[in-house]
Design a protein that fits this description.
The complex is a heterodimer.
Chain A: H1 10-17, E1 34-35, E2 40-42, E3 45-47, E4 51-58, E5 61-69, E6 75-80, E7 83-84, E8 91-93, H2 112-126, H3 132-145, E9 156-160, H4 167-177, E10 181-184, H5 189-199, E11 202-205, H6 213-225, E12 232-235, E13 248-251, E14 256-260, H7 266-269, E15 272-276, H8 290-306, H9 308-313
Parallel strand pairs in A: 2-8, 9-14, 9-15, 10-11, 11-14
Antiparallel strand pairs in A: 1-2, 3-4, 4-5, 5-6, 7-8, 12-13
Helix pairs in contact in A: 2-3, 2-8
Chain B: H1 2-21, H2 25-47, H3 50-61, E1 69-71, H4 72-80, H5 91-101, E2 105-107, E3 113-116, H6 119-128, E4 174-177, E5 180-185, E6 191-192, E7 196-200, H7 203-214, H8 219-229, H9 238-247, E8 250-253, E9 256-259, H10 261-269, H11 277-288, H12 293-303, H13 312-318, E10 321-324, E11 327-330
Parallel strand pairs in B: 5-7
Antiparallel strand pairs in B: 1-3, 2-3, 4-5, 6-7, 8-9, 10-11
Classes of the chains: A alpha/beta, B alpha+beta.
């Protein structure tokens, strides 16, 4: 079993997930899909030909929402506390400490257009963007992340602007609306590689230009290659780290968004859709409407289930 | 959608997934419009990048190539023409960029670093970086005026001091000023004594002086540079130099070397000489490497004697060039302030 990785950056995340309950700071163990007991494997969800399983939070507990095909070929949605691993390795159980905001049980989203319109409304309610089309770009980016398995190339979003113009707010809104939106700042490169490889989250990197220089250098590979499916970054484990004779190969494909006051380097910028920001002129809510966000995520999960066929074909 | 991808390269690629999830055609159209904006921004960024600057420089200087080889130094000078002192790019960096752009390395006859000019590659790069080609029809193979430049492509003065001395058409006269006489003779070896300085006012020297007058060079600068250029004039005093100026129909006015009025008038009468295409090409080539003004004027008149009496400013204006800090520059390179 790999030793648990510690992440200070996850502490705030955990507080949010747990409904804002004040807790003494504690070390959070980043969970991976691993064997907990002889037959229990912690996992945030799976996708296969006949089932999509995604961890949700309902009634204060973690469960799985499943969109599965029954023996008669029909598709049904169910809620499970755990689920047999389709590959027969054991029982899948939800992550004890998920890194992103979870959906509630899937709920009816109407049509794609209705959902899109509501997402744009959510953005407009919380944020003022200079270019009206940016709302549509961000809404489509959010929708795309919920169908990530369908695409081989994805864009990055780069929120660019001076301080106090709502870059972090932009990432917070993406955290609400993207699939496994993992909002972080100042991580170590190892943590990012590991989490992206295991969970394929939507990486939301705040204050990217202020991250440790070495971390950024290490993450160059992840960011430059991670917009295209199939790209991997090989690493040699350090002495005494795991089986040092093995080569570690990290999958780096995932949607990503950055926020900063400076333009990223050319190679990274060419993979980004830059959203140029300036200070809000009108009044916007100080806090993100978490309830609305959760409701939207439930609809988005349903949207993901609904587009299962397209993802399967890809 | 594929067509859009091809046209927009990576931008098209990264937008493809968004276009696929867009729920309506209207939204898709908005995204395509946005995508076009991103693409144009990137093109704009590319057009102002160092790579684009290097391509532009190669394009401007290609006329100075020798046997399809263009000195890195010339390219570097051109690249740096519009840059502040602190922002200058080293020739190593320019050399590296040219390699990155695909030009093969080469050497000039004197061993200086150079690139092989590849016209097909250059055309491609012009297209990639959206650079407008000069409209005067310069070609990569043109070597017009190359005999005026040293083999390393440097713009250092190549006036041949040992060149045969021409006797001036105007008869030499002696002028007395402040008790000192300056004699102008046709002798090739200047002789000096305590009170009289005899010098040979050669045609190049005369042209040089006129060039300085045409830019109204400050007398101090003029004196220093004149002595530096013609060591035989080292012992001349300012007064003696003033006498020399008069022999060239120039004088000192408000601390600057200027044409005397008669000369200016005669120049105005003669300014109808046509600036031909080769002249224009030559001037632009010199401007592209920001040749020092004196060097430029001397060589220009050497090459095109019919321009001797044409005001330099008029010639430069015709060729879309100007004077910038004592150098000839393309108009785009002149700081409007």
């Amino acid at each position: 079993m790999m030793p648990p990785l510690m992440s200070n950056g996850s502490e705030n995340q955990m507080k949010t997930i747990q409904g804002g309950i004040e807790q003494a700071p504690k070390k959070v163990e980043i969970q991976k899909t691993r064997r907990v007991t002889s037959d229990k494997i912690e996992s945030p969800g799976i996708l296969s030909d006949s089932i999509i399983l995604e961890q949700i939070k309902t009634d204060g507990s973690f469960k799985y929402a499943a969109h599965e095909q029954l023996g008669d070929g029909s598709w049904h949605d169910n809620i499970y506390e755990d689920f047999p691993d389709p590959s027969g390795n054991g029982i899948l159980t939800p992550l004890k400490h998920p890194l992103w905001l979870l959906s509630g049980p899937p709920s009816d989203f109407g049509s794609d257009q209705e959902l899109f319109t509501e997402i744009v409304e959510f953005w407009k309610h919380h944020h003022e963007l200079r270019d009206e089309r940016s709302y549509e770009v961000l809404a489509c980016f959010g929708l795309m992340t919920w169908r990530i398995e369908q695409f081989n190339v994805v864009p990055y979003i780069d929120f660019l602007g001076p301080k106090g113009c709502g870059k972090t707010r932009g990432l917070e809104l993406l955290q609400q609306l993207t699939y496994r939106g993992w909002l972080i700042t100042h991580p170590t490169a190892a943590v990012v590689f590991w989490v992206v490889d295991r969970f394929g989250p939507t990486l939301l990197a705040d204050n990217y230009e202020f991250w440790n220089k070495e971390t950024r250098r290490d993450l160059d590979g992840l960011l430059n290659a991670g917009y295209r499916r199939g790209m991997v970054v090989p690493r040699r484990p350090r002495e005494g780290e795991g089986n040092s004779s093995e080569l570690l190969v990290y999958k780096v494909f995932s949607p990503k968004a950055l926020a900063g006051t400076r333009e990223p380097v050319d190679s990274l910028a060419s993979r980004c859709i830059t959203i140029r920001m300036s200070r809000n002129q009108g009044e916007k809510p100080i806090e993100v409407d978490a309830e609305w966000g959760t409701a939207l995520r439930s609809k988005l999960l349903s949207y993901r289930f609904h587009h299962h066929e397209e993802m399967k074909k890809s | 959608m594929t067509e859009i991808m091809n046209r927009y390269g990576r931008v098209g690629e990264i937008f493809l997934s968004l276009l696929e999830v867009a729920p309506t055609d209207e939204i898709r159209d908005h995204l395509i419009e946005f995508e076009r904006g991103v693409f144009e921004d990137q093109k704009e960024d590319e057009a102002t990048s160092l790579e684009a600057g290097v391509v532009k420089a190669i394009l401007s200087c290609r006329i100075l190539a020798i046997d399809k080889r263009l000195a890195i130094r010339i390219i570097t000078d051109n690249v740096n023409a519009e840059r502040d002192q602190n922002d200058k790019i080293s020739s190593e960096r320019v050399g590296w960029e040219t390699s990155r752009l695909g030009f093969k390395k080469a050497r000039m006859p004197n061993g200086n670093r150079a690139i092989c000019l590849d016209s097909a590659l250059l055309q491609r790069l012009i297209h990639v970086y959206d650079i407008k080609e000069p409209s005067d029809g310069q070609t990569v193979n043109s070597v017009m005026g190359l005999d005026r430049y040293s083999h390393d492509g440097s713009d250092s003065l190549t006036v041949k001091r040992g060149a045969p001395v021409k006797v001036l058409s105007s008869s030499p006269t002696a002028t007395v000023l402040a008790g000192t006489s300056v004699g102008v003779t046709s002798s090739s070896s200047p002789t000096t004594d305590a009170t009289t300085v005899k010098i040979t006012l050669t045609e190049p020297m005369k042209r040089y002086i006129k060039a300085c007058a045409s830019i109204q060079q400050p007398i101090d600068t003029f004196t220093d540079r004149l002595k530096e250029r013609y060591p035989e004039l080292q012992s001349l005093t300012t007064e003696q130099i003033c006498v020399l100026l008069r022999h060239c129909n120039c004088t000192v006015l408000e601390g600057k070397v200027v044409f005397i009025e008669e000369q200016v008038k005669s120049v105005q009468e003669l300014d109808k000489v046509t600036i031909t295409k080769p002249i224009m090409q030559y001037v632009k080539a010199c401007a592209s490497i920001q040749q020092p003004l004196e060097t430029f004027h001397v060589r220009l008149v050497e090459k095109y004697p019919e321009l001797e009496n044409i005001p330099l400013e008029q010639i430069l204006q015709e060729c879309n060039c100007a004077i910038l800090e004592g150098k000839v520059a393309l108009v785009g390179a002149v700081d409007p302030t």
